[in-house]
Amino acid sequence: MLSETETHRRYREQITRYVSRDPYARHLGIRLVELGEGTAVAEVDVREEMLNAHGTTHGAVIFALADFAFAAACNSYGRPCVALSMNVQYMAPSGKGARLRAVATEKKKTARAGFYQIEVEHDGESIALLDAVAYRKSGFFLEEIGQNAANEE
Fold it and tell me: Which positions fall inside the Thioesterase domain (predicted)?
């Protein structure tokens, strides 16, 4: 059976396409920029309709960007993962025209859980910091990975 590192390397393109088709992220204009083993980088350009009443980026948009980067990072091994918890600290405002970048980094993973930190930044300034925990399900979300894993046993 392939290790998770080998699975990521062999199926990186397919996994990238799979996580990039997230309908809500696409609706918001969120783009997956990089996908590594347990890591991901995503970006969004803040539009007028993404602002709150104060004229700054709505917290829900910042959270959605971070959540997408987290989802990409924890699913980067081809195993289905879902969020158990996320804690967010908003540290600075941004506004219309800002390009926000979320960087998700795996801190530790076990057979059933993954622990991640996600930083959202704009022009080198931290906008938000999130800590997240993922539940790691068994199996694979792409049929070809599952079939090849079964054949290699």
Answer: 54-124
Cα angle 64, 69, 70 (rounded to 5 degrees) comes to: 95
Question: What CA–CA distances, in Å, run from 114 to 41, 67, 118, 142, 152?
Answer: 17, 14, 13, 20, 25
- The per-residue pLDDT for range 25-82, each reduced to its tens digit, is 999 999 999 999 999 999 999 999 999 999 999 999 999 999 999 999 999 999 999 9
Sheet of 125-136: strand order equals 31-36, 39-45, 99-109, 113-122, 125-136, 81-90
Distance CA 132, CA 138 (A): 19
* CATH architecture group of domain 4-152: Roll (3.10)
Largest CA distance in the chain: 57
